[in-house]
Amino acid sequence: MFFFNLSLAEFLALFTAAGTVVTLLYLLDRSRRKITVPTLRFWNAAQRPVDSTSRRRIRQWPSLILQLLSIAALIAALSQLRIGQRESASADHVLVLDTSSWMAARSAAGRAPLMEQARTMALDYLRAVPAADRVLLLYADAIATPVTAFETDRRKLEAAIRAARPSDAALDLGQAFDHARRIQARGARRPGEIVFAGAARTAADLGELTVPPNLRLLEVKTAVENVGLRKIGVRHSTSEAGLWNIYVSLKNYGKQDRDADLALNFAGAPVGSRRVRIKAGAEIESAFDYRTEVSGPLTTELRAAGDTFPGDDAATMELPALPQVKVTICSPEPALLRALAESHPSIRPVYLTPGQCTAPVKEGVVVLDRFTPPWKPEAPTLYIEPSGARSPIPLRAPGTNVAFSGWDQAHPVGEGLRTQGIMLASAQLFAPATGDRVVASSAAGPVVVARDGAQKIVVMGFHPMRSAMRYELSTPLLFANILRWMAPAGLQSWELFAGSVGTVSVPLATETEGASARVFGSDARALPFTVQGKVLRFFAGRPGTVRVQSGAREQVHSLTLPAVAESAWEPPASVRRGIPRAVAQSASAQDIWQWLALAGALGLLAEWLWFAPLRHAARMEQPA
């Protein structure tokens, strides 16, 4: 017999305090009483209280003893007095159920799927432990998640085990063990075992794995024969409109060389296929080209004989429709700007002479080469050497032998431009107003100015193809920056990736690109991310689409592939394995707090019913 909640000293301290209070109440002086008299005329009030010389004594010993016994029974119930040995008392176990993506694999020997095997072993363990033992169920994949509290209700635990399904994340075994230890240390009354049921294939570093000393392993084993998709990258070609470059990465996780059939479908129609051979443990890449200007789903499928894990055999991503930007060029020499206008496949140039530019252009971007029309532009406009009278930004005196001194790289038009010291034989100089941005400057004055507003405007005081700038690499970049600033949707660089859930690393073009980066989930909500150098990282625990916008690029990550753990944990020989038969046969201590609480309550009730009338009668018989 032992106390489960309190020690013997704590029980005696509580009982002594309660017993002392009750005993003092029985010794309380009750000589002063309320007496009803017919008149105060015959009542002589005493000047001072009458000294009592009688010794105080307890007159109702049976009542006091019954109350003390009832209080002792109630305190024992609160202390959870149990009959039996403390060693056989109930324990609190943590059952860790592997719900990682690998549990969706099939058994090579024709047995049940791995998840079903793990559920069966977890249920067998639950039936083996004593009924008084409490069990907490923990789902484990990339993040360990408690599903129940410490429960003795086996029906609730069995329902949670049967409801377990494989996720798309890989198992982090070390994190699962650490979480189970913390839960047991904080919430267990008497720590029992930490039980792991699953395949124990983990994506974390096994060198830092700390094995709990009370671990029991219910291991599900299967031969690893898997050929799967690792990653798919789709990029729009920079040389041809409507051309997509597709790169597929495959890996053989097994121990035998495998032949696999790789096929691509767009909107249900086959667009490419080939047969590949992958050596054991090797990873290869395969490239495809596909032309389309319409949106639709692109599906990549992989088929290999003997594959036990079908989760990474197919992936789908949505190819967007590629918009084109109409660029209307009004120039007396359109051939000069042809190389710049046709440098990007998304640009659709229209060449007009100044005599043909008789009405405002309402769509796309307008380039006015040495021509300032009488009408007001209704679309974003680039002015090249505008005439002084009708220039949108006032001109200063023209300069000769003008040398570039710097670029405003903080503005989108000047982003990435670093050319300095270029000498222009002649150039127009501008007098910008408040709110205008000087993109390129010289010692003589501004030579490129940008104005934001309802209709964006850029003025250039030199001709890019009739000056020394025609030989500089910054010239096509400057023209592309102008068009991208004026029509960002049309000249956006698209990159699409199909990968697995978990931590995703995104390479950036420059270190400054991370300052303007934004990451959005499928529901358009912003996701947290980190930037270190030229690498952006974010975490996605569930399948979905994540968009990463950085500068003029947008990367779309279709996280539809499950993360496959590549490391198989080899447990130490000291780890206990299998269903604990000895625990199943051991007898647990019997809990009797319910009966003690009932006995204490009945004792107090009996004392009140039996002795209360006697105390009242004795009080009435005392003389006044």
Descriptive overview:
There is one protein chain. The chain is α/β, with parallel strands linked by helices. The strands form 7 sheets. A 9-stranded mixed beta sheet has the order 17-16-18-19-24-23-22-20-21, covered by helices on one side. The protein has a 7-stranded mixed beta sheet with strand order 13-10-9-25-31-30-27, with no helix packed on it. The protein has a 6-stranded mixed beta sheet with strand order 5-4-3-6-8-33, with helices on both faces. Helix 2 runs antiparallel to helix 9 and helix 3 packs antiparallel against helix 4 (about 155-160). It starts with a strand and ends with a helix.
Ordered list of secondary-structure elements with their pairings:
Layout: E1 2-3, H1 8-26, H2 61-78, E2 81-83, E3 92-98, H3 114-128, E4 134-140, E5 145-146, H4 154-162, H5 173-187, E6 191-198, E7 201-202, E8 215-219, E9 227-236, E10 243-252, E11 258-266, E12 269-278, E13 283-291, E14 296-304, E15 314-319, E16 325-330, H6 334-341, E17 347-352, E18 365-369, E19 381-384, E20 399-407, E21 423-427, E22 437-442, E23 446-451, E24 457-460, H7 474-486, E25 493-500, E26 502-507, E27 518-520, E28 529-532, E29 535-540, E30 544-550, E31 553-561, E32 567-568, E33 576-577, H8 581-585, E34 590-591, H9 593-621
Helix pairs in contact: 1-2, 2-9, 3-4
